[in-house]
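Narrative of activities, Objective 1.

The group set out to show that a structural description can be obtained from nothing but a protein's sequence at a throughput compatible with the screening campaign. Below is one input-output pair from the validation batch, recorded exactly as produced.
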Amino acid sequence: MKKVTPFGLLLAALMAHPAWAQDGMSRKPWKGGAWNLHFQSTLIGQGVFPFPAAYSGANSLDPHGQIKDTFSFDVTGNVRLWRGAEFYTDALMWQGFGLSNTEGLAAFPNGEAYRAGKSYPGAAIARAYLQDTFSFGGGGAGQSDRRLILTVGRFAATDVFDKNVYAEDARTQFMNWAFITNLAWDYPADTLGFTNGVAAEFDAGAWAARLGIFQVSRVQNGRSLDWNLPHAWSAAGELERRYALGGRPGALRLLAWEERAHMGNYQESLRDPAEIQLNGLARYRSKYGFGINLQQQIRPSLGMFMRLGWNDGKNEIWEFTDADRTASVGLSWKGAWWHRPQDTVGVATVVNGISAVHRQFLAAGGLGITIGDGALDYGTERLTEAYYDWRLAKHFWLTFDYQRAVNPAYNRARGPADILATRLHWEE
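Output recorded for this entry:
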């Protein structure tokens, strides 16, 4: 008899229920009307200073120093279909490369750097989904109604899960991957960060519950999705509790996820050195993990966030980045204190780790999605980021960003690395 997992049951239950929440694309909400258009463009220039390195490998951050840039342009739109139902679309154009071709750090410093870097513009439909909202009333005086939000289509899993008002958008907040979402969540996504799926959210005001099922890539972090749906999928469930602490709003989110993909196994690959680069004999295997996400307002212009994440670390990372453990914390200040209410200052730090067998795999010369120096003197990867987001004009923001990475790619033989960036963001 085949084993039936909780997420296997979730898959069966959701196949008949299209779902989703909000996409959170912009600083400002959609305007009313039958249809809307919204535009954004983000240009990031980022450089790493030369840093000490005893050796380098195929996926190492270049220790000689370099400068790279990325550019994105989105046209997003929505149209009302019937009461409560809307169709959303997002046409994306991108160009540029991350440092060292988006390799060398698990906590990569540019959230706008795709694994599919391009020296000339590329284009794709990033999002195309239908969202239907059902209101049940019963919210009570001064409270919002209870709602069921159902969505189906193409979007990012991080549009729905592990949201955090202070750390979720590399275009307007922290740039590092570790502060956009939980680094230990191998969230389903193609090379550009999107996938097909369904999700459901029940919002009861003080609390919310979310379930989702998504496609995974056919090859590790590839552009094509795996259509062997009974054996290749990623599911997530999240509970959210909203509260007030000393009159200040906060939210706690608990995430659980399971993923099945045609992945290799670290222990199996270590049995035969010839299999290290192939990461063992790939077959449909699963991995799972958990996350905690906290946001808390301290003062009207000051807030903090925290994330903790863990996964089992037995099978290879399939979609996101090589982290099996993560802990991050940060602060975000709005500029009302210095009479610049549209400016933001942020500072955050993260500590990442990997499982024992994952360490052995990398030490033997194995490669992950973003890391692999050919050898390993293991140490936890630690990174700190600070930024100032300055509103230049009504629709323009200029950001100055500094990051310091200690033990990049979990390797004490390399670094620390100092990284500077500027970001110009426009939206309408």
